[in-house]
Write a structure and sequence with these properties.
Blueprint lengths: L19 H16 L2 E5 L9 H10 L10 E9 L3 E8 L1 E7 L5 E8 L5 E2 H34 L8 H8 L18 E6 L2 E6 L12 E3 L2
Antiparallel strand pairs: 1-3, 2-3, 4-5, 5-6, 7-8, 8-9
Length: about 220
């Protein structure tokens, strides 16, 4: 496929003299974005392994961006059993930066593929919303395991950490090990007594006791 060449302009080029701090900031945001592009693919043929080409096709079918050919690069495919697989993919990203007088460069916007520019704050806010949903789903699964355990044993597991908790729940009361929230931080488990507990995520800000904490109990 021929590359679509565009005339360079000030809104789409990263300055060549961007310092190391700027590059590290961009890499951090890139990792954040790519971490959100790990997709669970289901419904594959029971007798076929998921190829990188098939994974690329399925990612394109999602319609997230208008992409063709090698603009979607599948780095790794991990298959679990005959009908589940995780494909880790990279999408071409463009960053828009700006620099105010006597201030450092900052990332203002991001563009995925052929989509329009999106303010970086809006994009990161959308990521936090997705991570919040993921975290709540994980907490509900843990809550289900805790209830199963109490139903069988008459009390909640005697654990003082999420690691010890999941060691007691998996595989008898839960089928998968869940220890981390959507921001890749360990859940906090506190057993207040044999009939009460708290499961907590520190939320987007990573600080305990703030308004964005996500907490569930019995």
């Amino acid at each position: 496929m021929k590359e679509n060449r565009r005339r360079p302009d000030s809104t789409s080029l990263t300055p060549l003299n961007t310092n190391l701090k700027d590059k590290l900031r961009m890499k951090e945001i890139s990792r954040l974005i790519l971490g959100s592009l790990v997709l669970l693919l289901t419904g594959c043929s029971a007798s076929q392994k998921l190829s990188q080409g098939k994974a690329r096709e399925k990612i394109r079918e999602l319609g997230l961006v208008q992409l063709e050919g090698k603009e979607v690069e599948v780095e790794k495919v991990v298959q679990s059993g005959e009908d589940q697989a995780v494909a880790e993919a990279n999408l071409r990203l463009v960053f828009k930066l700006s620099k105010r007088r006597r201030r450092d460069w900052q990332v203002d916007a991001i563009r995925l593929g052929d989509r329009s520019w999106m303010e970086i704050r809006t994009f990161l806010s959308a990521l936090d919303e997705a991570r919040t949903r993921e975290t709540r789903e994980s907490l509900q699964k843990l809550l289900g395991g805790l209830r199963e355990y109490k139903g069988a044993n008459g009390q909640y597991p005697q654990a003082d950490s999420i690691v010890k908790l999941t060691d007691l729940l998996v595989p008898t009361y839960m089928s998968e090990v869940i220890r981390y929230d959507g921001w890749n931080r360990e859940f906090i488990f506190n057993l207040t007594d044999s009939n009460s507990f708290q499961l907590r995520s520190l939320g987007p800000d990573g600080i305990r006791g703030t308004a964005d904490d996500i907490v569930v109990g019995p």
